[in-house]
C-alpha cells in the first residue's frame, strides 16, 4: 500500500485548474481552458483542450495564454483569445484541421468573442482610445513614442480613477467591435468615454445587447449599469456595422425618433436608467421577445441579492423572477484557487426556461427558472460549487465545471434529460432541494498529484450566537494524521467581503494548515451571501457586532463539539473584511494565542479617500462629507485602529503594496500603532501585488505567504 504524504506549500504550483467549459452545438465535444503554473518563469499559462465522453482530453492549442474558446453555431470552427502575437487577439481554428488564423490585429488587445447567429460575424470588445481601432505593431512616430515613454505619468481628473487588479485607469475604454469571419477589417460600433460589457446578439442577428454605465455622473455612481440595444445594418456586402455614426462634437446620449426611423441611432437604453438596477449578463430569448439578465440594487452596496429579470422588448416591462427564492444568482463563493469561470444565461428553445447558477448555503448549483411563473428547479445537487457551464441549443446536454471539498475542479458532461436525484446536504441555509442528473467526468488533471496526498474531509456543523439568533453554517477540517485522544491547535478562518460565502470547494490554505497539524474552523456568519437578504444585510454599517458574535460562536462550538480541538491553543486568520474581523477580535478579546491579518481594514475613515471604492460605500454610513469632523463617528466606531492599545495577541500583518481595495496604508497604520507600543507584531509586504494576491498573485509570492502563516502559528501555538 502506497503511503500518502502531507500537502506542501509548493504543491500549489502543481495544481491545474480546468474551466470555461464550452459544449459543442451537437453536444459531443467540450472545449475548455486549462490553467497551469510555470514555476520557473513564475507565471500562469493557459491552453485550450478538447474532451469527449469515452476518450481522454486532448490539448488543442499550445498557449502560452489561450483563453475564451467559443464554438461557431455550426460547430465547424472555434474562435479563441491568444497572446501568441504579443497581445490578446482573436484567432480562428477549423475543426477539420490546419493552423489557427489570426483575425484581429488591434492595438490594446481584445477579449470576449461572441458569434452572430448566422456564424458570419464575431462581436468582441477592444481596449480603444479616442483614436479608435489602430493596427497592432508598425512604425512608431513621435506621438507614439511620447505616449509610450510618458504613460507612467498620471494626470488625474476623474473621481473614479483606479481599480484594484486593474491599476490606474488610462484613456482606453472597452468598446464593441465586429469582424467578419471570412476576412475584412474590424469595425468599431460603440464610441465615447464609456466601457461596454457583456455583449450578446439578438437571435435575428440585427442587433446587440450589452451592459454599460453611460451616465454623465458615472464616477459618482459606478454601480448604475444599464442594458442597451444597438441596431446593426447591412452595407450590401454582407458586412455588419453600426447604424450609428459618431458625431464629431458632443451630443446627447439618446436617439431621436427621426434618426431611429432612418436607422441612424445611438445605443438605446432598455432599462430605466434611474439607478435602481446594476445590470449584467443579458441574453435574448430564441424568439427575440424577451431579454433575461441579472441585476442587483446598487444602493445596497453588495448587501443585496443578485436577481434574475426578464425584459419584454415590445412593452419595456421588466419582471423579476424567483422572488421567493431569497438567494443570489451567480457564484458568491470565495477561495484561493480561481479556475477559468464562465456561464451565460441560457434559454430553452421554447423560451420557457432560463438556466443559471444560484448560491445557496455554501453550494452553487445549476438551476432552471420558469420564465413565466418564476418557479426554480435545481438541475444539479450535492456538495459542489458550479463555476462554469454551457448548454447545447436544445438544452439536452450541458458541460459543467465544478469543485468539491476534495477537488479544485474538473469538467463534466451532464445529460439534462436523465435525472439522477442526489440527497440534499443538511445545512442551515440551503433551500434548493433535489437536483441531480447523469454526469460523466471528462477531466482529472490533478489525479497524479492528489493520489499522493493525505487529505481530510471537512465536517459541517451549526452554531448560534444565542437564544433567538439564527443558525450559522460552520465547518471543521480535521488535522492530517489525527490520533484518537490527542489534542490539536485550531485556526479560525474568516472570509472576506463580507458579502461572500465559504463553499463546498477546495481551499488550498485550509488543507495546507491541516497538513501542518491544525484543525481549521470556518463559517458563514451574518453578512455572508447565500443565506438570504436579511441575513446578509443585517451587518451593513455595523461590522464587528452580530458577525463577531457568530464567528466566536463557531470557534467555541468547535471546541465544545470536537474533543480533539485544544481550546487553549487557538489562532485566527482572515483577509480583507476577514482581516478587519481579525483586527476587531484581537482588540476585543485575548482568546487567541496568535493572529494573522491579511490585506485588512483598520481605519474605515481614511479608507474613504484611499480605497478604489471607498466613497462608493459612503451611503451605508448615512453621511456624505466624510472629511468633516462631525462626521467621523460612524467610521471610527468601526475602525479597529482606535482599539490598538487593547491588542495583546501576537499579530502577523500581511499586505500587498499595490492593493487599491484596502490600500497598504491600512497595514502601515496598524503596524506603527502596535510597534510604537512594543507589541509583538511582524509586517510582511508584497511588492507589485494587488488585493487578490492569495488567489491570483505571482505564484512564488503565494507560496511565501503560506509559509509565513504556518511559521507564525508554529511559533505561537
Automatic annotation (TrEMBL):
Entry keyword annotation includes Ribonucleoprotein? no
SUPFAM superfamilies linked: alpha/beta-Hydrolases (SSF53474), DPP6 N-terminal domain-like (SSF82171)
Q: Does the keyword Magnesium apply?
A: no
Q: Which InterPro entries does the entry mention?
A: 6-blade_b-propeller_TolB-like, AB_hydrolase_fold, Peptidase_S9_cat, WD40
Q: Which domain of life is it from?
A: Bacteria
Report the residue ranges that make up the Peptidase S9 prolyl oligopeptidase catalytic domain in this protein.
506-717
Region entry Disordered, spans: 235-258
Gene3D superfamilies xref list:
alpha/beta hydrolase, TolB, C-terminal domain
Q: Name one GO molecular function term.
A: serine-type endopeptidase activity
One BP term from GO: proteolysis
- Protein name per its UniProtKB record: Acylaminoacyl-peptidase
Q: Which organism is it from?
A: Symbiobacterium thermophilum (strain DSM 24528 / JCM 14929 / IAM 14863 / T)
